[in-house]
Design goal:
Chain A: Pfam families: ABC_tran (PF00005). The complex is a heterodimer. Chain A has two domains: 124 residues, Rossmann fold (3-Layer(aba) Sandwich); 60 residues. Chain A is of the alpha/beta class. In chain A, a hairpin with a 2-residue loop joins strand 9 and strand 10. The longest helix of chain A is centred in the last third of the chain and has 18 residues. Chain A contains seven helices and ten strands. In chain B, helix 3 packs across helix 9. Classes of the chains: A alpha/beta, B mainly alpha. At the A-B interface, strand 6 of A face helix 7 and helix 8 of B.
Amino acid sequence: MNAVAMADGMHDVTPSRDGGVAVHGLTRRFGHGPAVLDGLDLTIAPGEFVALLGHSGSGKSTLLRTLAGLDPVHEGTLARPDAVSVVFQDSRLLPWKRVWDNVVLGQAGADRRERAVAVLGEVGLGHRVDAWPLTLSGGEAQRAALARALVREPAFLMLDEPFAALDALARLKMQRLVARLWARHGCAVLLVTHDVDEALMLADRAIVLDHGRIRTDLAIPLDRPRHHADPGFIHLRGALLDALGVHDD
Amino acid sequence: MPANVIPSASVRWHGRTVFQCVDARALLRYAAPVIAVLLWQGACSAGIVSTRLVASPVQVIMTGWGLLRDGTLGANLGVSLARAAAGLAIAVVLGVGLALVSGLSRLGEDIVDAPLQILRTLPALAMVPLFILWFGIGETPKIALVALGATFPVYLNLHKGIRSIDPRLLEMTRTLGLSRMQTIRDVILPGALPDLLVGLRFAVGMSWLMLVVAEQVNAESGIGHMMMEAQDFMRTDIIMVGLVIYGLLGLVSDQVVRLMERAFLSWRPVHGRGQAA
């Protein structure tokens, strides 16, 4: 293993003109095994919020890693904006840099700190600007990771199960925060999640991935803010669970 | 009424031991070495132990004071310190340089790591005869010996530190579009710093060890030389002054590296309690 070497896996990625994401015929297999992604087509409009669901091993992570430029494109084409950001399940903050310095990591300019402070205020971490990351709670660390993604003003934001490791209360708060930030920033979002309710609360569209193909593409035409008790919500919840192979007895 | 007295007395006694225990333990920790030194002094004074074989503590202190006043100790200590510092400095530069080469590139690892891993298994002290033939009997072989011994701990620990950087952090820097240089500066080097400091602590210990041998084999000055000269005149007191000095040097230099750890690794929760400004 050479963890330090950085492979450039972005030869086949073209910048998209309109700021949306377009994937065509994306196939990915490891060795001679079955295809993890199998001729996948996906379009995300600029500013659209898409939730990506699927069982473990359905290819969600591979798709997200390919979109993020971490995995190479072997077969198929991928067009996406240049300005993308990723928030992972774990915050991945550098423990040796203070929170604000993590947020503007790799960003140049004399106003680095001001920009960091502004975006940290936006995610509700204005009081932890100078803290060391290891002193943050799980929810605070994810907020900092979100701030680090937002400060780059992405046209396309990828969220890889960003709330999965949080407790239920922190998860609800984070979902509301993401909804608010999306409304303000208007970037396209791809949220990978296991949580059907989370998808229905946040997304314009839910996609279910199964064996490397999109099995279901479900529009969520509900008004915001959304409520769990809404009949439309309950109906879509049933449809989505159905698509995931979870049936009410 | 014994039945009444015993419980209340034991309770009170118990309450006191809680406080006394803390003091007593701390006291015992300091008392034990002091008692050992007193016993040593007693044995020498009573003539149980020959002062020709083992100088008494009082004698060691008096001799040390004498050596300090006539400048012998200061001069030799200065020479020893300079040798250790020079050797250690070379070792740090060499060890860090080699670890960076082999840690940051696969080609570098192939070229640098294997020979160093082979050399590492050689006991450095076995090189003494060769070093004397190569470098003569001046300062060079002594500094070279210190450098040789201290390079490996620096190299091995920093190399391990660079290689064990969390791959998830490196992945994160790729998604943020950091350049190679930025990644090395902001992620790899700070992430490997704790391991480098561990290596430095080992290296400091190793350099004193190397120095002792180098100065006793062939030297005109230095603490080791002072001790070897004393051996010729059966001056156990001077030899023991030398031992005490070596002990103190080891202790002080270890503390210096600990302070460096505290200063550089303040982000770690152990050191960084209440750091959030």
